[in-house]
């Protein structure tokens, strides 16, 4: 096997995209990797992964840089709200590029970046260019719904999460410790 870092994508409408990436982060830390998780949409309020990852020590760092979830139907988001999200996503993007180029990390998880691209908060071509020019050894995971064909094409592994059944459909609210 080569020492080339992999590009993985977790996408689809089903639950588990971030959860799967966090599982890889746990595995990576267990192998002595240094991991950065940069959250593009999540604002860092009330997510269990923040407290859980803090217990892993300085091998993993998580930065929630978003303004919270935005609706999946773009036409339902007002221009002021969209501008707020775009500003936060651009700040996160610049941070990501800086961290990728630092060659400090073994694994970087770009949580919800596919949603940020879908909402045109970040340019897909810029992301593709960054992926093509990342340090050779760096592993990356891109999560979020609506992965663009350009992202899927450059990826080494793409996993699509599909909903078969979800508790929400029965009126069951998101469960603490399971979904957040």
TrEMBL record:
Signal peptide positions on this chain: none
Xref: Pfam families: CobA_CobO_BtuR
Domain of life: Bacteria
NCBIfam families the UniProt entry points to: cobA, PRK05986.1
Record's protein name: Cob(I)yrinic acid a,c-diamide adenosyltransferase
Organism: Veillonella rogosae JCM 15642
Gene name linked to the record: cobO
